[in-house]
Write a structure and sequence with these properties.
single chain; alpha/beta; eight-stranded mixed sheet; two-stranded antiparallel ribbon; 20 helices; 10 strands; globular
Length: 490
């Protein structure tokens, strides 16, 4: 049989199936393969019935159906399964063929795999794919990186199936070499953790502090989604709050308050520590999920640990004050969101320098503008900021965002202060404000901290009356001598 398929896809979970159907919609012939081959037959007989999708019951059969250069995409669980499939594929492929990992792999694994695959004469792509099941079917955000020579051979497919924004622009562009694509997807997921935590804190203040019903909050989120906060996560939060269980009561109120995580947010935080970048809001979002998992301990603590009554009856009883406070909550959410994205871009700038990637920051905002979980109107403003000034050191210094935080700041501070006084936990709102105040401080108390380090460990310090880069040590006790430790930063 003459090879006539454009691409093969391994992994027939819902994401894989939907991506195959998306490719078929756009005129590409796809070979579907799965480790358990009965899934291939089930897919062809049901979801893919009436399409041009082909099935294969072995890797050899799958490869034999592909045009050259052969393009094989994996959508399998990150980790060992990816390595196993790579080893199974290599004997069947020829120089110039392309292996693509579309799962949530750690970027360092992608670095390693690209070197390995290229040593066999093949090309490798590690690509982030975001948008969930619906995005995979109708148009995801796609963030490819890896072997540059592979990009021209997959560009038409990836850009055709990706989400489109203003002017039909695809939410897919080449990110960079090695693990750059998976790195950008990792940061996307870290920001996603932050966005979700911020929304949950806004919800909790309205529910616990103001005593608002799910229906009332549904209306608030619907209103927010018509303004600057217009985004996929605000939109689905609006819909979740309107959903009723079989007994007519809000379904959200019956869901146990313990959150899961797959690990990509944790990876982002770990990497930020390696690079010395303070993504404090994402870290709080990760740790908040960890705290939520301590359900039994929290229930016990709730009966033993004292704190203020979280209710805000005076505000809730006055329509004018209630409306004003809800607007303050919106401002706190928006300002904190700006800080979160600023931190995410700080991390990507540091990674680009460390790993020698040439990242297009405006282009990344465009890739995230549609299709993905954090898609929002807000990302258009980030693209404008970097298009206007590609060398922008921090989003907080862009004129537009300076103005937005100036407008939101009073409400943001009021919400954080009120929540602290009433014992309503707002870790993400609080850490965003703390970072903002630290970042805008020309002087911080780290002078005392550095003196402490020099006192107990002779770690030296710089002086404000001497040029940067000169280090000094003081014999603080008169007993320690003049020998200093090596100067270092971790």
């Amino acid at each position: 049989m003459e090879p006539n398929a454009d691409i093969a896809l391994i992994g027939l979970a819902v994401m894989g199936q939907n991506l195959i159907l998306n490719m078929d919609d756009h005129g590409f012939t796809v070979v579907a393969y799965n480790r358990s081959t009965e899934k291939v037959d089930q897919f062809l007989a049901n979801e893919a019935k009436g399409t041009k999708v082909l099935g294969a019951h072995s890797i050899a059969e799958m490869v034999s159906r592909l045009k050259r250069p052969r393009r094989v995409m994996m959508l399998v669980k990150a980790g060992k399964p990816v390595d196993e499939f790579i080893d199974q594929l290599i004997p069947h492929l020829e120089p110039g063929d392309i292996i693509i990992d579309g799962g949530n792999s750690l970027f360092e694994d992608t670095n390693r795999r690209q070197k390995y695959v290229e040593s066999k004469g093949l090309l490798y792509i590690g690509t982030g794919v975001s948008g969930g099941e619906e995005g995979a079917r109708r148009g995801p955000s796609i963030m490819p990186g890896g072997s540059p020579a592979a990009w021209p051979h997959v560009k038409d497919i990836f850009q055709a199936i990706s989400a489109k924004v203003e002017g039909g622009t695809p939410c897919c562009e080449w990110v960079g070499e090695m693990g750059a694509g998976h790195y950008v997807k990792m940061v996307h997921n870290g920001i996603e953790y932050g966005d979700m935590q911020l929304i949950c804190e806004a919800y909790n203040i309205m529910k616990t502090g103001l005593g608002m019903s799910a229906d009332d909050m549904h209306e608030v989120f619907a209103e927010w989604n018509r303004g600057d906060l217009d985004s996929y996560l605000i939109e689905i939060s609006r819909d979740i709050l309107a959903k009723k269980d079989a007994d007519g009561l809000p379904l959200v109120d019956k869901i146990l308050d313990t959150a899961g995580q797959k690990g990509t947010g944790k990876w982002t935080v770990i990497n930020s520590q390696d690079l010395g970048i303070p993504i404090t809001l994402m870290a709080e979002a990760v740790y908040s999920r960890c705290v939520s998992a301590l359900k039994d301990e929290r229930v016990q603590a709730s009966s033993m640990l004292e704190g203020p009554n979280p209710a805000l009856p005076d505000i809730a009883a006055s329509p004018e004050r209630k409306s004003a406070f809800i607007e303050d909550i919106r401002n706190a959410l928006y300002a904190s969101k700006i800080v979160s994205y600023a931190q995410g871009y700080m991390l990507m700038r540091a990674a680009a320098k460390e790993y020698q990637w040439n990242l297009n920051y405006g282009g990344i905002a465009l890739m995230w503008r549609g299709g993905c979980i954090i898609r929002s109107r807000f990302l258009g403003k980030i693209k404008e900021a970097y298009d206007s000034n590609p060398a922008l050191t921090n989003l907080l210094l862009d004129d537009y965002f300076v103005g937005e935080i100036r407008k939101a700041q009073d409400g943001w501070r009021n919400v954080v202060a009120t929540a602290a006084l009433k014992g309503i936990p707002v870790p993400a709102f609080s850490t965003a404000l703390a970072f903002y105040d630290q970042y805008r401080s020309g002087v911080l108390p780290a002078n005392l901290l550095q003196a402490q380090r020099d006192y107990f460990g002779a770690h030296t310090y710089e002086r404000i009356d001497q040029p940067r880069g000169q280090f000094f040590h003081t014999n603080w006790t008169g007993k320690g001598g003049a020998t200093a430790s090596s100067t270092y930063n971790v």
